[in-house]
Amino acid sequence: MPYPDEFEGFMINELGKYKDFKKQTFKPKVFGDNDIDIKIECCGVCGSDVHTATGGWGEAPTPLCVGHEVVGKAVKVGPKVKDVKVGDRVGVGAQIWSCLKCAQCKSDNENYCPSQVDTYGAPYPKDVDPNETISQGGYSSHMRAHEYFVFPIPDEIPSHLAAPMLCAGLTVWSPLVRAGTGPGKHVAIVGLGGLGHFAVMWAHALGAEVTVISHSPGKREDALKLGAKHFVSSGDKDWAKPLAFKFDFVLNTADMTNKFNLDDYLSILKVGCQFHQVGLPDEPLQGLSPKQFMPNGSSIGASHIGSRPECLAMLKLAAEKKLFPMVQTIPVSEKGCAEAVERVKNNDVRYRFTLVDYDKAFGN
User: Does 150 have pLDDT greater than 90?
Assistant: First the structure.
């Protein structure tokens, strides 16, 4: 049975076999009054897809279709949907549902709702879907999402460039904005990859003085092109000493924090400021001690994607200032999905992949 009874997707059937994608059908959740069906045009490839498919982040239900940077056209809207009509170009990020009733949801923190549903690999609550359907992601023909998590894509942003903004872009935009990034602030971005290159671009656009800290000296030119004023190679001996007490905010976008000498990174913070994680390693941080934070009263924190108002503000700024990520495209297919995931796993991308040519894979 084709759409609307079933969707098609490129899925993995066993965690760890992250290159073994098979084209399969799956049943979406029951269509609700506030739901929107999207015929997918393209989908970004996120590090989360890799960590999930490899099993690095732990158990996940299978068969599973990953992908949570979706752009496409609305093809069906529920009777209570207010802001989207059939034919609109829209996007969905890493969250697809929340209760919209709790204190978090009512304070524009729906990304911290305890009942939230991730865009893939998460069951819907029984009162929302009697089948408690597992959500499936965007390496697929269609997506069914609650209107609150469906974002209009400005005309100025091409689809393949908008897609990575919906997870990677938002994941760094939210902590930067909440940290008060702007004129007069010194911000360090650790890592220049999929997340980091967005962070440099946003922090510069918000008016901060940006320093990139990277173990890859060959990325200096890209860092400066994206808006960084300074580039520091973390492979250099004593690299942190000249930066002591320099930064108002350090945003770590690398997912290897468990291998960092964390004291170096904490030492570059001003008094009372934060080392903030958006890159999530597979391994925990061993041997962390409160004493490490005492020399400057620093702290360590993390965040989870961002809110709807933050996403809309991010897209608005990107459209107005023509701020676009560095993106490579790969046609969606069993082979294409495997190639994209493998290359992201091996850091063989500058700096995001977007899967395209969905009409060829799934038909019109």
Answer: yes
For residue range 92-142, list pLDDT tens digits in order.
999 999 999 999 999 999 999 999 999 999 999 999 999 999 999 999 999
Torsion sign across C-alpha atoms 61, 62, 66, 70:
negative
Cα–Cα distances in angstroms (integers) from residue 129 to residues 29, 123, 351, 358, in the given order: 6, 9, 37, 28
Largest CA distance in the chain: 64
CB atoms within 10 A of CB 45: 32
| Cα separation, 285 vs 282, whole angstroms | 10
pLDDT in tens, 223-239: 999 999 999 999 999 99
Backbone angles phi and psi of 16, in degrees to 5: 100, -35
Question: Among residues 25, 44, 35, 121, which one has the least CA distance to residue 82?
Answer: 35
Question: CA-CA distances (angstroms) from residue 10 to 39, 302, 317?
Answer: 15, 31, 33
- Residue 342's SS3 state is helix
Q: Decide if pLDDT at 1 tops 70.
A: no
The phi, psi pair for 296, rounded to 5°, reads -135, 15
- Taking the C-alpha atoms of residue 108 and residue 196, their distance in angstroms, rounded to an integer, is 24
How high does pLDDT run on average in the chain?
Answer: 96
- Looking up tokens 């000498």 gives 261
Are 77 and 93 in contact, with CB atoms under 8 Å apart? no
Name residues whose C-beta falls within 8 Å of residue 148's C-beta, 6 or more positions apart in sequence.
Answer: 34, 98, 100, 110, 308
